[in-house]
Amino acid sequence: MFFIPGFVIAALTFPGVIIHEAGHLFFCRLFKLQVFDVCFFRFGNPAGYVVHQEIQDFRAQFFVSMGPFFANTLLCAIFCTTAFLPVWELKVFDPLAYFFYWLGLSIGMHAFPSTVDLSHLWAQAPGLARKGNVLAIVSLPIAALLVVLNYGRVIWADLGYGLAVGVFAPIAIFRALALIGI
Amino acid sequence: MSQAICSRCGQDFPIKSLFDLNGVTYCEACVQTASKEAREQGHPASYIPLINKSICARCNAYIGTSPDNAQIGTLRFCAACAPLVKDWDYPQWLKLSLAALLLLLVASLAHGRKYFQAGREMYIGEHLVKQGRYASALLHLQETLRIAPASDKAALLAAKAALLSGDVASASKALQDHNGGRFENADKPEFREVDSLWNRATGALTKANQAEKLEEQDGKEVEAARLMHEAASAYPEMSALAFAAESYEEGVAFLKHDYDAFLAIAEKQWKQQNLPGTAAAVASALACKYAVTADIAYRQRSEEMLEKARQLAQGNVDALKGLDEFEERIHYRLQSRTIIGKQEYDRKFRSVKAGK
Fold first, then answer.
1. CATH number for the domain including B75?
2. Residues of B engaging A, defined by a Cβ cutoff of 8 Å
3. What is the mean pLDDT of each run of 10 residues along chain B (356 residues)?
4. What interface predicted TM-score (ipTM) does this complex get?
């Protein structure tokens, strides 16, 4: 395992940071939450943040915490899918395809919610899950996995996640399309 | 005013020790109970020091009791921060960036279209290879290689499909067009599989070439047939080798003067493939039968087959050239009722060696 300073990683993958924070802001606005401060990108830790009011409603908490995870993952899958074939399978040297793949990968790398986001979710989810809240039940395993993966960032779990989405999503999509004859 | 009353217990406390919960003032002891009750009733349960209400919750500026301040939820903000907190707008550059991202998304989809086509063909080809439908797979994989000849996967799949459908030429093209036959990793099982198939196929073709040369020599028919059978066994995917091996049995039968066997094989091959060569072979076998039986029916049929061979050879320069040479010998056999091989015929009647 090799060490690369966080600001270098953030600089190389800045689109993902901006999209992640934009996702937080979008869901804050959607649920009409008070936003105190927003930083879309900076050379520091964290590379971006959205400071918002304390959230009482679990649905709002879920989407504010997890929304960027789903949005970044989706965008990563789309961009990587468009560039996957020339980059990985067909081995065509196409700079534009490599640009799109970098964009997808950098977005996917910043999909993980922060430990602060997850801790808020984790604090509310078990109690609500016991009461039968479907969203809380669904969020528990996802949040648990993401907590583990978040700690795995020191061993490049975020890059691993981006690559996994950027490789397995296109393979699954293309194979499914080929099987159904499209 | 440095004192205020707790709304629950009614006692006086210094302001700096009091809290605000949903706009109501509590002392430190009562606010915890009130917060718990609020939570149970589904109301906001967070409370702040009362003194914080005199500073902006966002920028910490002193706001005192100024009428310009705004209360949003449980917090107070200065006139500058209040609208921002209430409705934090997306910055202009972010809106433009997100619009650019959407455009990039569309551009990436448009750009990837030709690769989608190539990829689709490759996955269909791969699927067909797994099903053992090699000839169909090859067509799809060749389409992929047209766009991406450097793809290891597509080249190896195409070579595999071609080799397993007996098409060595297409396999050779797929491999040679891929960086002159060089691959990234020669230890990959896919490469090893194709390498093994390639060696088997080329080994068989080498034997077939040797058999072809021997077959042109009188008296070597048995060895030629043996070699061609070995080639056909080594590479059964190429049906032409098995067909050639069978046709070489005609030469063996001719050598053994077993003209019934010669005719049986020739007629079988003619039924399988209506070609100038198979028609000529039947004519040759019938001419042999005429030579040994003097049955005019054999002669008539032999001449008919020669005519069919000529019709089938129309437009094919090589076939016509071969037939010209062949017809001459068959006519000699029919006229003289003498059965001799090509080399003996050449020695007797041709000053220069003609091709077979």
1. 2.10.110
2. 44-46, 57-58, 72-73, 75, 84-88, 90-91, 94, 97-98, 101, 104-105, 108-109, 111-112, 115-116, 118-120, 122-124, 126-127, 144, 147-148, 150-154
3. 82 86 89 90 83 79 75 79 86 95 95 89 91 95 91 93 95 89 84 95 96 85 92 94 93 92 95 93 95 95 95 91 90 93 85 48
4. 0.88
